[in-house]
Amino acid sequence: MKKMQAMFIGRAETIQSVYRPGVRDELHQLADFYPIVISRENLAEHGSALKSMEVAFSTWGMPALEEDEIRHYLPNLKALFYAAGSVQSFARPFLHCGVTVVSAWAANAVPVAEYTAAQIVLANKGFFQSAQLYKHQNRQEAAGYANAFPGNYNAKVGIIGAGMIGRKVIELLKPYELEILVFDPFLSDEVAARLNVTKVGLTDLFSQCQTISNHLANLPETVGILNKEQFDRMLPYATFINTGRGKQVVEPDLISALRDVPTRTAILDVTFPEPVHRESELLKLDNVILTPHIAGSNGTEVERMAKYAMEEFRRYVQEEAMQYQVSLKMLETMA
């Protein structure tokens, strides 16, 4: 069986860090690869050779090409395999050109969900501020603060967005016997019952839950959706976790709610802008924990994404049903 003509497209250093030698060796057994990693900068230079490319592999740093560029430089491209999460920034022109787009979003969802579940369990114990109080004040103050928290048994946890990551978080939290409330307009009653969660409105979720975690899709409709109306209703010792997108949070409203009630906590792995401005109040508030966008795949975790992409390509070659193919309809609601 003749091998397909394949290429890597994106930033060469990122391609190498995600598609590690073992995965690349397996891919080379399945397809004949163009020897140069293609980027927007060298697209025209290699234009004539690219006209025969049938499949492409990418990851973070995938260039956003216009439809006319795809048709001109990649007229025979049949499929694009993306070893990372969101494809919102580049997928539509490829889909409009009839190119199959496959994402390893399920692989990147795993570490995000693991990170989130860990933060939720710690937040319900008052870990974050009590650790600081012990260090900067004394043990008595730290213990007094922590004792105001419910712990994890029967505590209410709010999940905003029950997509791939949100559902994985719910799955990971099952052993803790929490009461999980979910805001997701697209979640059916049937699926909610299967997940053993309670659907609620966004404001109700903020007013009832001890810990709240954002996993909304990155869409124009969700920009600024988390604002004063929600943050002002947080419980006195509540924690807000954001591993979704910074743009979904109206930052001044969150800062105001945290300043007004210092026993509240925010754990922010994403912000807008990213990184935060040096003069931002988020850097000055003791009840804000900032991490540098580490919830997603890091270190050895990135290889999982490449393996998902490789296995999907194997299914593609063998004409089997793929698990993570993206459609235009899916882009309306997915992260």
What report would you give on this structure?
- This protein is α/β, with parallel strands linked by helices and 335 residues long.
- The chain is built from 14 helices and 13 strands.
- A 7-stranded parallel sheet has the order 8-7-6-9-10-11-12, with helices on both faces.
- Helix 9 (164-173) links the parallel strand 6 and strand 7 (179-183).
- Helix 2 packs parallel to helix 14 and helix 6 (105-123) runs antiparallel to helix 14 (302-317).
- The model has no long low-confidence stretch (mean pLDDT 96).
- Residues 136-295 form the D-isomer specific 2-hydroxyacid dehydrogenase NAD-binding domain.
Features of the shown structure:
single chain, 335 residues, alpha/beta, Rossmann fold, 2 domains, seven-stranded parallel sheet, six-stranded mixed sheet, 13 strands
